[in-house]
């Protein structure tokens, strides 16, 4: 008789334990999926440099139009593109890596400033475009 009375609470505790473990695993899977989505994908140096050069061309057009919102978006996009292959560049050619970082930092900072310093941004974009031509040729 006592074993029947204990059987129900034991089953309830076991069911709750298993349910809690299952919910924990679902959270872990969701967190892993979010982490994978948020981490930038790695691309080849050549493709990454081409993408950045296209963004620079867009940035120059936006600077001529004095569209501060689009300039800010392009500055952020340049950084995102750079993050996808910067480690490879740093490993293969640290000097060139430094040459990219300097104008890129100028563009990032200048794109968020108000009013836009179009002269400085245009100069940094031109410099970055030239350096990216060299980056494209890294083997």
Question: Can you give keywords for this protein?
Answer:
mainly alpha; 6 helices; 139 residues; elongated; Four Helix Bundle (Hemerythrin (Met), subunit A); single chain
Provide a descriptive summary of the structure in words.
With 139 residues, this protein is an all-alpha fold. It has 2 domains: 1-39; 45-136, Four Helix Bundle (Hemerythrin (Met), subunit A) (Up-down Bundle), CATH 1.20.120. Helix content is 86%, strand content 0%. The protein contains 6 helices and no strands. Helix 2 runs antiparallel to helix 3 (68-83), helix 3 (68-83) packs antiparallel against helix 5 and helix 4 (86-92) runs antiparallel to helix 5. It is elongated and about 85 Å long.
How are the elements arranged and paired?
Layout: H1 2-38, H2 45-65, H3 68-83, H4 86-92, H5 94-112, H6 118-136
Parts with pLDDT < 50 across at least 5 consecutive residues: 35-39
Estimate nothing, just give the exact number of structural domains: 2
What is the radius of gyration?
26 Å
At the first level of CATH, the class of the largest domain is: Mainly Alpha
Shape label: elongated
What level of helicity do the residues show?
over 70%
CATH topology of the largest domain: Four Helix Bundle (Hemerythrin (Met), subunit A)
In short:
The chain is mainly alpha-helical and 139 residues long. It has helices at 2-38, 45-65, 68-83, 86-92, 94-112, 118-136.
